[in-house]
C-alpha cells in the first residue's frame, strides 16, 4: 500500500506559496481541516468460482494485490461475486503455491486434488447447502447469503490478516427491475481486533468479524436469491438467522408483494415486474440507509449493457432510476460504473447491438457499444452523467475489472480475449483518510468512495492527479496561476490533495461570491517506462496517424476540461425527470434526439491541454502542469476532466474534436466491422496453444481476428491501444445562485 502522507506540511507549504490570499474565502465557508489521506488504488467488482468466475478466492486475491509476481497489485480489494447461488467451493485452492496454514491443499478421500471447481457437496468434508435447497446432490447450489457468511468472509478475513492487505466482502447484486449493481455492507467486517490476532498454524480458521449484515441484505434484496428460509438451516425451521427484511417506514407486510414465509418482498412476475422490481430496489436502498448509513454503498455496474429499462422485465437503467436511487439514499447510491470491465471481450465491455430482447424486440446496449471503453452515459459530453451533475448531485464515476476469466486463455496467461485482472488495466484512485491510523480499513475506503474525491484510469495512462480550483478576488484575495499550480504540484507529488481555505478538489464544492474569478490548476503524472501491457510493438491505432508509440509505453496526449452549469434538482413527475436514451444511438448519435431528462445542454469541452500548452514540472518531467482562469463567475457550475493517449482525428477511435468514437470497429464479434489493421510480424509471438506469462510480445498476437489474410485490432490489443481517464467533478457554487445541494 502507498504510504500515508501527513497533510500538515503540504497545507503549510501551500499557504506559504499563496500568501495572505490563502486565508480568504467566501462568507460562511470556513473549512474544517481534513484528516490525513492519500490516493490508493482498488477494485470492487470481480468474481470467483463462488459465482461465475474461474479462480478461487485465494488466487484472485494474489493476482489482485500481489506487487511482485503481478506488479499491478492494488492497495485495497473488495471481492464481489453475483448474488443468488452457486455450487462450487471457491475456498479450495488450485495448487500448493496458494496454500496457507489455515487453508491447505485439499484432497478427496482417494487422494485426488480438490480445487475451486469442486462442488460444495463433493468437498472433503462435504458441505451441505442451507435454506430452500435447489438442484440435485452432489451439485446442489448454495445461496450466496450462506457462502458469504460462512465461507467467503472467513477466507477473506484470514487473508487480510495473513497478507496484511486491506480487503472486505462486497457483492454484485442482481438488482430487481434492472441488471447488476456493485454493493456492500461493511458492518462487522475486518474488526480492529484482527490487528493483533494470532493466526492458526493448522487447518481451520474462526473469524473475529462477520459479514452477516451483507449476507442479510443479499437474502432480502437480491433478485436471484429466491430462498424463502429467512437464512435458516432448513426451510420452515427457526435455527439460523431468522431474518426479517422489513424497512422502517415502508409497507412491508402490507405490500401485495410481501411473502410471509420469506419475510421479504417477492414481486410477482409478468407485466409490470420491472416497475415492481425497481420499487424493491429502492426498498433495499432504504434498508441500507436506515440500518447501515455509513457502511453501505450501491453503485450500478455496466449500467448501459442490458439496454434501456424494461417496465415488464429486468434490464437496464434510465436516468430517472438513478435519480430515484440517489433521492432515497444519497449517502449509499452515489455513482455508477460507466467504465465497465470485460475490456478485452470480443464486444468491449460486453456491450453490443441487439444484445437483449424487450417485448420481443431486439434492443442494443444503451449506446450500442462502449465509446473509448466507457459507456455512453458518461462518455457523451452533455449526456446522462452531465445531466445528473447539472442538478448538483453527488453522483460519481467509477471503473471496474469485472474479472471472470481470460477467455480463450488460462488465468495465468498475459493475453486475454475477455477480462483483465483487478488493477491490471483499470483502477479507481480513491482519496482515503485514515489519519494517524496505520491501517487502511473498510470504513475509510467506503468513506473515500462516497466523497467523489477520486478518478479512474485505464492502461496506466496516468497514476497521479491533482485537480484544484481556488477562488480569487481583487486585492488581498487575489491568487496567481503560478501559486495554484504550486499547490497542485505539491499535492500530486505527495499523492494527496489540498487543504487550503478557498480551494476545492474532486467531489468537493467551492462556495464563492458573485463575480469571483476561479483559478484552476491540473497536475497529472504520465508515468515513464512500461505499462502492464504484454505488447511491445507500436500502437496500431496511432500508427494510422504517423505516431510510433509502443503499446506498453503509452503517452498522455491531452486533457480536456469539461464544464456544465448547475440548475438544481429535477422533481419526480416533472416532464424533465424521466426519459430513455435513444435506441438508435449507434446509427444516429444526435443529441437533439435525447430527451431533456437525460442531457445537460450546457455541458461542453471548455479547454484542452496538450504538450504545446502544458509544461513539465521542474525536476520531474513525468508530471505535467497546466492552469487557466474562469472569469467573473455568476452561475453555479462544475468542472471535470478526461484525457487520452489518442489525439483528435484518429480513424475509428476519436472524432475531429477528440471525442471517443464507438468501439464497434475493434469488436471482434462482427469481423465485417473491423477497420484497424495490425501489421507488425515480430519475432516473439507465442502461439495460442502455449501459456505465455512474459511481457515482451513484439508482434501482432496470434489470437487477433484475421480477415482476408490480414490481422485486425481487437480483444486486448484494442483495449491497450485506446486509453482514457476520467476525473470526478469540482463544483463551484455561487452565493445567491443555484445551490449545489448534493455536496456538503
Biggest β-sheet description: 11 strands, mixed
In terms of DSSP E residues, the strand content is 15-25%
Domain unit count: 2
Q: What is the count of helical runs? A: 12
Average pLDDT confidence is 95
As a percent range, the share of helical residues equals 10-25%
N- to C-terminal distance: 29 Å
Classify the secondary structure makeup into a structural class: alpha+beta
Task: Write a brief structural summary.
With 744 residues, this protein is an alpha+beta fold. It contains 12 helices and 31 strands. It folds into 2 domains: 7-33 and 459-734, no CATH class; 38-103 and 144-301 and 400-457, no CATH class.
Describe this structure as you would to a colleague:
It contains twelve helices and 31 strands. It is an alpha+beta fold. The chain has two domains: 7-33 and 459-734, no CATH class; 38-103 and 144-301 and 400-457, no CATH class. Strand 25 (615-617) and strand 26 (620-633) form a beta hairpin. Helix 5 (273-291) runs parallel beside helix 6 (319-328). The radius of gyration is 25 Å and the shape is globular. The relative contact order is 0.12.
Secondary-structure blueprint:
Blueprint: H1 7-18, E1 38-43, H2 57-65, E2 76-79, E3 85-86, E4 106-107, E5 113-114, E6 142-143, H3 144-163, E7 167-169, E8 171-174, E9 180-185, H4 212-221, E10 258-259, E11 264-265, H5 273-291, E12 296-300, H6 319-328, E13 335-339, E14 356-358, E15 361-363, H7 376-379, H8 384-389, E16 396-399, E17 426-432, H9 442-451, E18 454-458, E19 464-472, H10 481-494, E20 503-504, E21 509-512, E22 516-525, H11 540-543, E23 558-565, E24 604-610, E25 615-617, E26 620-633, E27 637-644, E28 706-707, E29 710-711, H12 715-721, E30 724-727, E31 730-734
Parallel strand pairs: 1-2, 2-7, 13-16, 21-31
Antiparallel strand pairs: 1-17, 3-6, 4-5, 8-9, 9-12, 10-11, 14-15, 17-18, 18-30, 19-20, 19-22, 22-26, 23-24, 23-27, 25-26, 27-30, 27-31, 28-29
Helix pairs in contact: 1-10, 3-4, 5-6
